[in-house]
Amino acid sequence: MTDDRTLRQWFVEEVLPLERDLERFIARHCRVRDDVEDLRQETYEHALIGAQRGFPQSTRAFLFSVARNLLIDRARRDRIVSFDRVADLDYAVEMDISATERAYTARAELRRALVGLEQLPPRCREVVRLRRIEGLNIQQTAERLGVGRHTVERQLTLGLRALANFMLGGEARIHRGSSTSLRRKGSK
What we know:
The chain has two domains: 1-83, Rna Polymerase Sigma Factor, Chain: A (Orthogonal Bundle); 95-174, Winged helix-like DNA-binding domain superfamily/Winged helix DNA-binding domain (Arc Repressor Mutant, subunit A, Orthogonal Bundle), CATH 1.10.10.10. Helices cover 72% and strands 0% of the residues. It has helices at residues 4-15, 19-29, 36-52, 59-78, 83-87, 97-119, 122-133, 138-145, 149-167, 179-187. α1 (4-15) packs across α3, α2 (19-29) crosses α3 (36-52) and α7 (122-133) crosses α9. The relative contact order is 0.08. It is mostly helical and 188 residues long.
């Protein structure tokens, strides 16, 4: 446990000089501009609680990790996570090279998924977005789009297959014919 005087000194000397960068980081990734100050204060609170157990090796990395985690928690609570928001989340922390590579690869894959999503036909894209991004269930999605549950299930299956195909280097094309319908056509 760290005594209050040492904790205050650490905060003033190590954390407060990072305030401007921290606010910019939060503002860049926060939907509501009025929440920036609240998130900054919450970041400070969590950083102080964590530092009571021991000071971090890198105050900057620690502080920005706390802010990043709070932003992610807030996005989870909102239950609507923008792919763009997560894809562009700039960690701004000192990471080792392998962590940097993993983060870069993950963001690149997320951007590729967004491009693939845009390739889908409008209804299919909307079904995938509502089900997988907004987290609506089949019934809610059907009601919102004014279609039947079966249509939602079929569009989701087609959309996810096309998206997976695109992620593996394909063209994100929807293949509507099944093996059953092909057999029927061939037998006529």
